[in-house]
Amino acid sequence: MSSRSHIIPYEELNLSKKEQVRKMFNNIAHRYDFMNRLLTLRIDTLWRRKAINLVKKYEPKDILDVATGTGDFAVEMMRLKPTKVIGIDIAEVMLELGRKKMERKGLSKIIELQEADSEKLPFTDASFDLVSSAFGVRNFEDLEKGLSEMLRVLRPDGTLLILEASNPEDMPFKGLYKFYMTKICPAIGGIFSDGKAYNYLNRSVEVFPTGNAFTSILTKVGYTNAQHYPQSMGVASIYIAKKPPVGK
């Protein structure tokens, strides 16, 4: 078991990481979008837009967004002019809020949100042109299993798109960022939402593989051409990889 498996939101609860993550996101759902904008100074919206721009050339039509939360990344997918976007998550409260968001934006006919487990995707093989996840994969209970499921439902030559928090490597920014993540973010989270949840989310960034370490995992699982694009001095990272074409 990797160190990632030992990072859980609520040490006092005798629940699996998956169940704790479900509980945590349901607890913070009503403040989640607000906290994302507050803690990143709205830069998270720019990261999503940059990620979408990097995959425009593939012109995906059928899209799956894993760990979709309230559907922010799914909404951003509309820039790709898709035929259908399905967002899945295990946190039902997040999904309820996401469905209301789709109704307000008039997107309910194109974007469908449903409850599902990233490690047991309820879709047949080769169903999607693009499979994405924004700030979700580091919460998987079994990272490689989740990534393998995402690969399974991709069509041959389909594209994986992941946006995830990461650790800056260059000093002195690295030290300033660590102070912000370990001291400031949990404190703000405690004021506006759930301090334990934001303490967990920040600790999970510290132990999650970044850059070449993560692209190596993608290659191990079976993806090809895994690329890494650091954002904002390494605070976030965009990863793009491909499913091999038929016969390769």
Which descriptors apply to this entry?
single chain, 248 residues, alpha/beta, 7-stranded mixed sheet, 8 helices, 7 strands
Descriptive account of the structure:
The chain is α/β, with parallel strands linked by helices. It has a single domain (3-242), classed as Rossmann fold, CATH 3.40.50. The chain has eight helices and seven strands. The chain has helices at residues 17-40, 43-55, 72-76, 92-105, 143-153, 173-192, 195-207, 212-221; strands at 62-66, 84-89, 111-115, 128-134, 154-165, 224-231, 236-242. The chain has a seven-stranded mixed β-sheet, with helices on both faces. Strand 4 (128-134), helix 5 (143-153) and strand 5 (154-165) form a beta-alpha-beta unit. Helix 6 runs antiparallel to helix 7. It is globular, with a radius of gyration of 17 Å. The two termini are 31 Å apart.
Whole-angstrom Rg: 17 Å
CATH topology: Rossmann fold
Strand line-up of the largest beta sheet? 3-2-1-4-5-7-6
CATH architecture: 3-Layer(aba) Sandwich
Shape: globular
| H/I helix tally | 8
Low-confidence stretches: 1-5
CATH top level label: Alpha Beta
SSE order, as H and E? HHEHEHEEHEHHHEE
- Termini separation comes to 31 Å
Our count of domains comes out at 1
How many strands appear in the DSSP assignment?
A: 7
Mean pLDDT: 91
Task: Provide the CATH superfamily.
Answer: Vaccinia Virus protein VP39
Range of strand content: 15-25%
The biggest sheet, with number of strands, parallel, antiparallel or mixed sense and barrel status, is: 7 strands, mixed
Helix percentage: 40-55%
Which structural category fits the helices and strands? alpha/beta
